[in-house]
Each structure stands twice: as structure tokens, then as C-alpha cells.
Amino acid sequence: MEIRQISADERPSTMFPLQGYAFEGSPGSPADVVAQQARVRYFTTTTSLVAEEDGRALACAAGMPMRQNVRGVLHDMQAIASVAVHPEARRRGFARDLVNRLLRQGNDEGRTVSCLYPFRPSFYARFGFVGLPQRRLVSLDPAGLGRVEVPGASVQLLPNREAFDVYAQTTALVASRRHGFAVYDETRFEEWRGDPVWVAVARSGGEVVGVLRYRIDGFGGELTGEDLLTTGPLGRALLLGFLARHVDQVERITLRVDPAEAPELWATDLTATIESRVSSPLHRAPMARVSSLPALAGLPAGEADVTVEVVDDELIGGVWSLSGAGGALTVAKGTAEPSATLTAAGLSGLVYGVLDPVDVVTRGLGSVPVDAFDALRTLFPRQLPWVCANF
Ligand SMILES: CC(C)(COP(=O)(O)OP(=O)(O)OC[C@H]1O[C@@H](n2cnc3c(N)ncnc32)[C@H](O)[C@@H]1OP(=O)(O)O)[C@@H](O)C(=O)NCCC(=O)NCCS
Fold this sequence. Notes:
With 391 residues, the chain is α+β, with helices and mostly antiparallel strands. The protein has helices at 11-23, 30-39, 94-108, 121-125, 160-177, 186-189, 233-244, 344-351, 357-362, 370-379, and strands at residues 2-6, 47-53, 56-70, 73-85, 113-116, 130-131, 136-140, 153-159, 182-184, 198-204, 207-216, 222-227, 229-230, 252-257, 272-275, 287-290, 305-311, 318-323, 330-333, 340-343, 366-367. The longest helix is centred in the middle third of the chain and has 18 residues, at 160-177. The chain is globular. The strands form 3 sheets. Strands 1, 2, 3, 4, 5, 6, 9 and 16 form an 8-stranded mixed beta sheet that branches. Strands 7, 8, 10, 11, 12, 13, 14 and 15 form an 8-stranded mixed beta sheet that branches. Strands 19-18-17-20-21 form a 5-stranded mixed beta sheet. It has 3 domains: 2-111, Gcn5-related N-acetyltransferase (GNAT) (Aminopeptidase, 3-Layer(aba) Sandwich); 136-275, Aminopeptidase; 293-379, 2-Layer Sandwich (Nonspecific Lipid-transfer Protein, Chain A). It is built from 10 helices and 21 strands. Residues 22, 59, 83-85, 90-96, 118-120, 122-123, 281 line the site of coenzyme A.
């Protein structure tokens, strides 16, 4: 078996049949291949890999360049997607080899972090990935939203094509502020310019403070929103006030929201269902890992020093001295005796703020003596990430 990096033009003939079989209803029709050819231009910056035997593509995987906010700092990220293996070739290590190659290549290209949506988390846990929170889905009766009138503020309704640049700018703005938030590069993002959706744009004092893309399936039906993207409570209040004006038009409104949101606090008489489903393979929560420790230097960190050994990992294995002196992380090759041993997933869980040192131990992601708990907890305080993008 040989792994070959292919151009975007080769994707429809090599990767698509594998992805089509793995992720779509099948057998497909020739029209599906034509539809994929029209999408090629959105993948010119994506690293597309195929594993071939005797010139036949038997497995594929892709790494998309994205940016992700880690504790307030935007880092180059690799999104791993399109991992699919022909059924005749499964269980021969093809997926493992492709993922390892993507991780190595991403690291060479300076991608500090990697994210993916796992078909089964335990498969990717072996590659150093740790689980991140699932987004919340809110389904509500618009009658409970009440009225919101803010002087000097407005919500404008636009077709997607007219709002797309504002939507892209707001997405980038939220990414610059929200821990965990990941954004596509311009090439990949462009695909959504043609989506048949409405966009509600909330402004205050001329500044955009929120955007929501949505569709309505009919009178008396459902208004289906995508992610509620806001710069803060004002944007959220304005968009919810706008949605409330659909009370006589739709029965139900659904939205995807930041896992840190508590929609039950949005209005006094709200009737809503708030859920986060996690199951394999359909309702997948994201996973992430750190792929370079020196590149994390400068991250906001608590005032503590600790030396850790990262084990069993090609990318970040070794002894590292981590310090949060002055509130910014410094990273150096460690010379002192390590006070904790961590797997890549354990360290990633601390960096992303999703695991306490106690969780690292109970989840089998490292060995941390009790007297090192406080230093690690202070260095990497808990912080809830929101990945938002789905790939
Ligand atoms: C999931 C899939 C990509 C795995 O590909 P594969 O080439 O068979 O996987 P590998 O042979 O590289 O497996 C590597 C390891 O993971 C294990 N593994 C593979 N599939 C697994 C599964 N479903 N659950 C748990 N472990 C699994 C293998 O046993 C192997 O373990 P080993 O290292 O101890 O030998 C393939 O079955 C597939 O295409 N499925 C349909 C599409 C899909 O789910 N894609 C993933 C999207 S994220």
C-alpha cells in the first residue's frame, strides 16, 4: 500500500466513491459524481490523501486548514475529515496510517492543533485526541420569548448571498474571542455562499453584534436555525427578539448554541427542550489534540511551574517545563525530574480546559501525583470550548 497526496481535481474519481460508500446511501448515481466535480474548487487548499494498492484507491483521508481559538489565541489547526476505507480493505491499518500521516504532515506545516468528529472516540483516543463538549440544540415555542426593544439597535433580514460577507466577518470575530471556536479558510468557507438560507443580522450603534442563518419549512411549521453567533448578550437578545416576531407564523424554532448557553434563562415563560446527544456514529462530539507544545508559548496561563513528561507520542512526546509566570505560558525542553506523566490526550485535555488533573488520572490519561494537581490546575484552569464548525 502506498499513500499518495492527490490534487482537488482527483477527488471525485478517487475519494468520492469511497466517501460515497461510507457516508451516503448507496449505490449512488452518476449525477452524484457530477455534483462532486462542481465542489472541487472548495478543496484546493485541503490536503487530500489516498492509500492505493496496484493503482486502486482503497482508503482516503483529508486535512483541512482551519484556525482555532485556544484560550484566546488563534492557532493554525488541521481538521481531519473524509476518513473512509473500502470495505474489502478494512481492518488492515489503512485508516491508522492515513491519520498518522496527516498528523505528521500537519505538524510539519505548523498546525499547532488538530480537530475531528470521530465515528468512534476510542479509535481517535489512541492518536492523542480528547473529547470536547457537544453543542446544545434548543427547540422552543416562540410564544415564550417575549418582546425585546433596544433603542438604537436593529435586526435586518437578508438573503444569504447579500449577507455572506457580514456572516463571514462575524464568524471570524466570534473566533477571535471564543475559546475552542474553529473557522475554515476562505477557500473552503466559500461553499456556503450559495446556501438557500435567510440571515438575520443584529446591529447596535452600527456594529454587527450577532448573525443567525435559518430556513422556514412552511406556514405553521418550523424555523430551523443554524448556530446562534453573537458577540455577547445584546446580540443574543436582539436575535431572540427577532425570532419572537415569528410567533404567529411557526410553531417551533430550533437553534444550535454554545454549550455554555443556558437557554432556560433567556425568558421567564420559555417552553423549550435543550439537548445534547452523543452517540456513535451519528451524534458525534468533537475531539481535539495539541500537535506542538512550543507553538503554545504565549497562551494565557495561571501562575504555576510544572515539568511533565508526555509519553507514547511522536509529535509532542518528551519532557517539558511549563511555566505560567507573568500570565503567559512558556514552554522549554525539560531538564528537571517530571512531576507528572501525561499522554497526548491527557495534556490536550488540560490545554483545552476540559479535564481537571483528577479526570486525567481517573480516565487513564496520565499519572499525576496528588501534589502536582494544584500546579496543573492553576496553569490550565477549566474553560469550556465551543468548536461550532462541523466538518
Ligand atoms: C472506520 C474506518 C475508517 C476504519 O478503517 P480501517 O482501515 O479498517 O481501520 P484500521 O485498520 O486502520 O484500524 C486501526 C485500529 O483501529 C481499530 N478499529 C478499526 N475500526 C474500529 C472500530 N469501528 N471500532 C473500534 N476499533 C476499530 C482496528 O482494530 C485497529 O486496531 P489495532 O491498531 O489494534 O490493529 C472504516 O471502517 C470505514 O471506512 N468505516 C466507514 C466510514 C467511517 O466510519 N469513517 C470514519 C469517519 S471519522
